[in-house]
Specification:
By secondary structure, this protein is α/β, with parallel strands linked by helices. It is 31% helix and 23% strand.
C-alpha cells in the first residue's frame, strides 16, 4: 500500500498538484496505525492511503491542510489526555485521542507544493542558458520552440514545438519568459497573457519592448494586462551577452521568489470544525457520522462511544465543554 501511496505522490508532484504526505513514525498499541504507514492528504481533505482509525485521521487531515497553508512540516503526537502537555519540549503538536483509545501515535506531516516553474519561449543561446540555470535550481522547466528542433536543446524532453501553453499548468508559481528575438514576440505574449502566470518577461531592448507594448495596446490589451509584462526582462547588467542575459533574468526571478512571489496558491478545504464535547477531538461537521441534539443545539462526535457517553448525561458534558 505504501508503494502505491508513494507512486501517487510522484504522480501528483509531476502534475504540479499540492499535497501533504503524512507518515506514522511511532505508535503504541492498541493504535491501529503502524510505523511507516503513509497517507496523502489533498487540499480538499481527501485521503489516499492509511494513517489510522477514526480517532487519528481527522486530526491528521486538519494538520495536513494547515501545513499546506503555512508551508511548514509538523510532528503530531496523538495520545491520551493524561499524557499530553501543552508545553511539549520536542516541538510537537499534541492532540488528545478519542476517549475509547489507549493507544498513541506520532505522525510526521510534510507539505509538498508545486515547485516554481519557468516556461521559456524561443530559440536562442539565452533560451538554452535559462533552461540550464533553472534546472540547476530545481525549477520545473518547459521550452516552447515553435518550429525548432528539440534535439538542438540541452534537455530535448522539455521542448514543445508548437506555441501552445495549455497543459503546462501555468499559475501564480510560474514565470513565462519570451526570448523569441523579434520572430513572433507578439504571438508569444498573447499566449502568455492568456495564462495566470505570476511573471511575464520579454528579453528585448528598450526600443523593441516599447514597440511591442504599443502593438498589443493597439490590438485592444488594456493597462492592467500590459502591466503584467516586464520588458526588458531581468535586472539591468548593461551590455552583456546571451548567457549573461539569462543570469540577469534568473536573478530577477530569484529575487521575486525570495520576496514571496512566484508561489503556488493552494485552496484548502473550508469544512466547519467543532470539538467533540466528550473527548475534545476536532471533528469536521460536514463529514462527521455521529451527531446528537441537546436543547436545540447540535453536537458532533468522533465515534459512537463518545456519542453514547454524551447521550447518557448531556448536561454534564455541555457544562464541562
Amino acid at each position: 500500500m505504501d508503494e502505491a501511496v508513494l507512486a501517487e505522490a510522484m504522480r501528483l508532484s509531476r502534475a504540479r498538484r499540492a499535497f501533504a504526505l503524512a507518515t506514522v513514525v511511532w505508535r503504541r498499541a492498541p493504535s491501529s496505525g503502524r510505523v511507516g504507514s503513509k497517507g496523502i492528504v489533498l487540499p480538499d481533505g481527501t485521503v489516499h492511503g492509511w494513517l489510522g482509525g477514526a480517532c487519528a485521521e481527522p486530526t491528521v487531515v486538519r494538520e495536513s491542510i494547515a501545513a499546506l497553508a503555512d508551508e511548514r512540516p509538523r510532528l503530531l503526537f496523538l495520545g491520551t489526555s493524561d499524557e499530553l502537555r501543552s508545553d511539549d519540549d520536542r516541538g510537537r503538536i499534541v492532540v488528545p485521542m478519542a476517549c475509547e483509545s489507549e493507544g498513541a501515535l506520532e505522525v510526521y506531516v510534510e507539505p509538498f507544493l508545486p515547485r516554481p516553474q519557468l516556461v521559456v519561449i524561443g530559440r536562442s543561446p539565452a533560451v538554452r542558458a535559462l533552461t540550464v540555470q533553472a534546472r540547476s535550481l530545481e525549477w520545473d522547466v518547459a521550452v516552447v520552440d515553435d518550429g525548432g528542433r528539440a534535439d538542438e536543446h540541452p534537455y530535448p524532453d522539455l521542448v514543445r514545438t508548437t506555441l501552445d501553453l495549455s497543459g503546462l499548468d501555468i499559475g501564480r508559481a510560474s514565470a513565462v519568459v519570451v526570448a523569441t528575438q523579434g520572430h513572433y514576440d507578439d504571438l508569444a505574449l498573447r499566449a502568455a497573457l492568456a495564462t495566470e502566470a505570476g511573471y511575464i518577461g520579454v528579453v528585448a531592448a528598450g526600443k523593441r519592448a516599447a514597440a511591442l507594448e504599443q502593438l498589443l495596446r493597439d490590438e485592444g490589451f488594456d493597462d492592467a494586462q500590459l502591466a503584467r509584462i516586464q520588458a526588458p526582462a531581468g535586472i539591468d547588467l548593461g551590455a552583456v551577452d546571451n548567457a549573461e542575459i539569462a543570469v540577469a533574468v534568473r536573478a530577477e526571478l530569484v529575487a521575486l521568489r525570495a520576496a514571496g512571489h512566484l508561489r503556488a496558491t493552494v485552496t484548502t478545504a473550508a469544512d466547519r470544525e467543532t470539538k467533540d464535547p466528550v473527548c475534545g477531538m476536532i471533528v469536521f461537521v460536514e463529514t462527521a457520522k455521529y451527531r446528537a441534539t441537546y436543547e436545540g443545539t447540535d453536537y458532533w462526535f468522533c465515534s459512537s462511544g463518545c456519542q453514547r457517553a454524551f447521550e447518557s448525561d448531556p448536561a454534564a458534558f455541555v457544562r464541562e465543554s
